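User: My collaborator sent over this chain with a note saying "see what the structure looks like." That's all I know about it. Can you take a look?
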Amino acid sequence: MEEEIMDKDRVVGSAKEVKGKVKQAVGKAVGDAKLEEEGKSDKVEGKVQNAVGGVKDAVRESVKK
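Assistant: Without extra context I'll predict from the sequence alone. Here is the result:
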């Protein structure tokens, strides 16, 4: 049985995305525009890193075949 391994960029990217969502929500709730913008930035960074990990996974899968 072959184990499927997810690229660490996908895991870290997803975590950054969640962290960004939380920061953005907290910033919005307390009226801190800087924190809200940092949250948005973290979300985008996480999405990009997650996408990079997805590409790595796809390349890894195509090499296996």
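A starting point for your reply to your collaborator: The mean pLDDT is 92.
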